[in-house]
Write a structure and sequence with these properties.
Radius of gyration: 23 Å
Order of helices and strands: HEHEHEHEEHEHEHEHEEHHH
Distance between the termini: 65 Å
Number of helices: 11
Helix content: 25-40%
C-alpha cells in the first residue's frame, strides 16, 4: 500500500511538472499576409527558426489580409508580431488614414527588412516616357482600396494629375493587368512589390513592357510630405529587356510588435533572426540583399522596441542610450 501511494504521488508530481512546463511556454502569434504572397512563407520560416533556437517561446505564423489587418490585430491583442510597410505603421501610430481616430502609440519596430519599390510598367506601344505621360492613358492603379492604388493616387496628385479622372483607370489586380497589357487593352500598370515580382516579370517578357523612372524632384517632394519614402534604384538587368537602372520611390517593409512585448524576448527574436539571415535568404528570395543596417533605416520615425534597440546597439548600428 505504501509503495502504491508513493508511485501515485510520484506520478502526480511528474504530471504537475509537465503541466507547469507547458503553461510556461510563451505563445506569440505572427500575422503575415495572404498565403499566395511572399510574407506568409517568410513568417513560417521565422516561426520555425525561433522555435528551434528560443526555449520557452512558441511562435505561430498566421495568414491575414496584410498590413492594415495586422496592425488592427495587434491593437486588439489578437497578434503579438506582424509585417507592414512603414507608411501603415506611421498611420497606425498617428491615427490617420486607415486608422483614423484610433491611434496606437504602442507600435514598435523589431526590424526593418526589405524595400517595396513602386514599379510603373508600360507597354512600348503606349509611348509613355515619364509618369506625366500617363495622363489620359488606359492605366491599372491596382484594385480599389489597395495599398497600390493609394500609392498611385499619392504620386499622381503630387504631379498634378487628377486622380482617378485624369487616367482611364481600370481597377484590376496584377494578374488581370498582365493579361490586359498582353492583349493591348491596357497601356500601363502600377505594381508595388519586391523586386522580381511575377507580374512585372511577365509584362516585361511577354507584353513588350518597359519600366518608367521617376524624377528625383518628385521623390524629394514626396519625402517632404511623407516620412516613409526612400529613393530606390531598380538595377539594370533585374527584368528582361531592362538595360538601364530605374529610379523610383520605395517604402520599407518592417517586422513590428507592441511595446508590451517583454524586452528580453524582443532582444532574442531580433538576435536569432539576424544571426541566421544567411539561412533565411537562401529560402526567401525577397530577403536577398538585405543587410543589417537595413534594420534601422527608413523607419518613418517609428521607434524601435527597447529589446531590439539593445541588439542593434551591441552591433554598433546605434549609439548606446544614456
Amino acid at each position: 500500500m505504501k509503495r502504491m501511494l508513493f508511485l501515485a504521488l510520484a506520478a502526480a508530481l511528474l504530471l504537475a511538472g509537465c503541466s507547469s512546463e507547458e503553461t510556461s511556454v510563451q505563445e506569440i502569434r505572427l500575422s503575415t499576409a495572404a498565403t499566395t504572397g511572399a510574407l506568409y512563407p517568410l513568417g513560417g520560416a521565422l516561426a520555425s527558426l525561433w522555435g528551434e533556437n528560443l526555449e520557452g517561446v512558441r511562435v505561430t505564423a498566421q495568414a491575414s489580409a496584410g498590413g492594415i489587418e495586422n496592425l488592427r490585430l495587434l491593437a486588439e491583442g489578437e497578434a503579438e508580431l506582424g509585417f507592414a510597410v512603414t507608411s501603415l505603421l506611421w498611420e497606425a501610430q498617428q491615427g490617420e488614414g486607415s486608422f483614423e481616430g484610433a491611434p496606437n502609440d504602442q507600435v514598435r519596430v523589431l526590424s526593418g527588412l526589405y524595400y517595396n519599390p513602386n514599379q510603373v510598367v508600360v507597354t512600348e506601344q503606349s509611348g509613355a516616357q515619364s509618369l506625366q505621360d500617363l495622363e489620359g492613358l488606359r492605366f491599372a492603379p491596382g484594385t480599389a482600396g489597395s495599398t497600390t492604388s493609394e500609392e498611385t493616387e499619392i504620386h499622381f496628385k503630387q504631379l498634378g494629375i487628377d486622380y482617378p479622372d485624369g487616367i482611364r483607370a481600370q481597377f484590376v489586380g496584377f494578374t488581370e493587368a498582365v493579361e490586359l497589357m498582353r492583349n493591348r487593352q491596357l497601356d500601363g500598370a502600377w505594381v508595388m512589390a519586391g523586386l522580381g515580382n511575377a507580374a512585372v516579370t511577365e509584362i516585361m517578357a511577354t507584353a513588350d513592357g518597359r519600366l518608367l523612372s521617376m524624377d528625383d524632384s518628385l521623390i524629394e517632394a514626396l519625402q517632404e510630405q511623407y516620412p516613409w519614402y526612400a529613393r530606390f534604384v531598380i538595377p539594370a538587368g533585374t527584368y528582361a529587356n531592362q538595360e538601364e537602372d530605374v529610379v523610383t520611390s520605395a517604402i520599407k517593409l518592417a517586422l513590428f510588435c507592441s511595446a508590451d512585448l517583454d524586452e528580453q524576448t524582443a532582444y532574442e527574436l531580433t538576435r536569432i533572426m539576424w544571426e541566421n539571415m544567411d539561412t533565411l535568404q537562401q529560402s526567401i528570395p525577397a530577403l536577398e540583399g538585405v543587410e543589417l543596417q537595413d534594420a534601422v533605416t527608413d523607419l518613418a520615425g517609428i521607434p524601435l522596441h527597447e529589446g531590439a534597440r539593445r541588439y542593434y546597439e551591441e552591433q554598433g548600428l546605434l549609439p548606446a542610450q544614456q
